[in-house]
Amino acid sequence: MIAPKDRWLDHEAGPVVRPYAVTKGRTVPADGTSVGLIDVVVAVDDAVPPPGLRLSPEHRHILSRSREPITVVDLASDLDLPVGVVRVLLSDLSQHGMIRIRATPRGPVTNERLLRDVLDGLHAL
To answer: pLDDT per residue over 15-36, tens digit each?
Structure first.
């Protein structure tokens, strides 16, 4: 059995923080926006947090990594957090005008040649 003092410590990785603790229990963006995996995130140059807002280390990391355009999935990989958690954190920053999220065009893939090439590639495996 794991001793109580060691329960929140991974001896190789350090302290363990549950993802829901990072988002304060939230599982969806507060403003109800949908953020896609390949949507591009860019920090606003002159963004300053409003008075009284404390940014978490994850929020600050998102801001530093998004000085150059980066996709949501790349941010999740860099932060080593689930994409759902990153989406909630992005919505926090977006609500305060600290980042911009550029949605990628969504719609059905209608390029039959592309689909046929993918199918041929799969058959070749």
So the answer is: 556 666 666 667 677 777 788 8
